[in-house]
Specification:
With 80 residues, the chain is mainly α. The protein is 52% helix and 0% strand. The protein contains four helices and no strands. The protein is flat, with a radius of gyration of 14 Å.
């Protein structure tokens, strides 16, 4: 959530919202999705490289020692 008087944070929120719309319909009901579905969406978003992070993915930055980007990307690139 963007804090007041920090407009640079709003564009990041809008980008995340746009990415979520790729997986979830805009006015859809979330109750039709199971926890596994939501976890898969979260994982796909967390392994996606971001320009704002220097083309690194969030997981790579927050768990650099335990994360192999190539392995995770290969697994999720094959899934629809």
């Amino acid at each position: 959530m963007a804090k007041p008087y920090r407009p640079w944070q709003r564009c990041i929120n809008e980008n995340i919202n746009e990415l979520l719309c790729q997986y979830l319909p805009k006015r859809g009901v979330l109750s039709v999705y199971g926890q596994e579905d939501l976890d898969a969406i979260a994982c796909k978003l967390n392994i996606r490289p971001r320009k704002s992070l220097g083309f690194k993915c969030p997981v790579e930055l927050f768990t650099p020692d335990a994360f192999d980007f190539r392995l995770h990307y290969a697994i999720f690139a094959l899934q629809p």
